[in-house]
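Incident review: delayed structure delivery

Summary: a single-chain prediction request sat in the queue longer than the usual turnaround. Root cause was a stuck worker, restarted by the on-call engineer. No data loss occurred. The affected request and its eventual output are reproduced below so the record is complete for anyone auditing the incident later.

Affected input:
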Amino acid sequence: MKNNLGVIDLFSGCGGSSLGFKQAGFQIKVGVDIDETASRSFRLNFPKAHVFTTDISVVSGKDLLLSGGFKSGDQVILIACPPCQGFSSARRNSERLTDPRNNLIFEFLRIVDEIRPRAFVMENVPGLATNIGKPIFDQILEKFKNLGYLTTHGIANTSDYGIPQRRKRLILIGTYNSKVSPTFPIKTNGNPEISDNLMKWVTVKDAIGNLPKIKAGERKQSDFMHTSANLSETNLKRIKLTPHNGGSRSSWPDDLILECHKKSKGHIDVYGRMSWDIPSPTITGGCVMISKGRFGHPDQDRAISLREAARLQTFPDSFKFYGSFGEIAKQIGNAVPPLLAQKTASTLVEDMLNNQIL
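Output delivered after worker restart:
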């Protein structure tokens, strides 16, 4: 699909959202992110895009339009994933309310006001719209309405969209045209035990089952991304005693269980293995460490590799990452799954085509 619209990607990271929009037929014109390493990955994959590696608060709408070669916001699709830890349900209320990253939502609103893009898509944690962030979210929706935007939003579980990962995300879509009422992406996949009319979930095995075996701390010479973290002697004992295909630390002898885990029943996924036949848990920046979640390989005695994490996020093997092992893991975990972005972008394209404004 060819169109004359270009994408400006705010909080662009390594480019997960941009990749999905590119796959849907859009031209990636501008990226903005404060992280230098992530920005270098973005440049590798979108060499024709102009990248601002700076605090978004010093970038104006005019700067963005000029750098992308846009005559007006009507040529722009604005996408954004403001850092969302401030609204995460994993944090205490006192921390969530005072997190300075909450203000970045308003930088996104400012850019929309200054550019007036033809459409925008924002992705974030569900807590922004459903929990402690709801008053802020309602305020933002009202401001978008006053600017002339029609919006729709909802919570998407990525496994319902063909992504081999369970990850709930808020998606907000807005259009600056009274003829186009945006629609939310329709689910395409479901639990095969429940959903008869949808395609089956894409599983961990579907995504990574054909990759070569490696050991903890090993790098596959033919693919530097197929590298797994080294494990201490104790952690190697732990993973070996964790049952294959979804096992947890509950099988360990007492001498291997951490004192904090003896006192608490929480965080039960920590040190667990993924299961082959269902989607993975949410891939985070700590996804290559067994101590950070259920990130053990289903049957090899190690954490998942960078390549496996990238595949579970739906990055193609051709996507280029720059940085150290830990920096790349962070980029992968922070990214919007490209396939989710692609399906959102395709829904937006269909809405515009149906109303003959594309």
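Verification: The two ends are 11 Å apart (CA to CA).
Action items: add queue-age alerting; document worker restart procedure.
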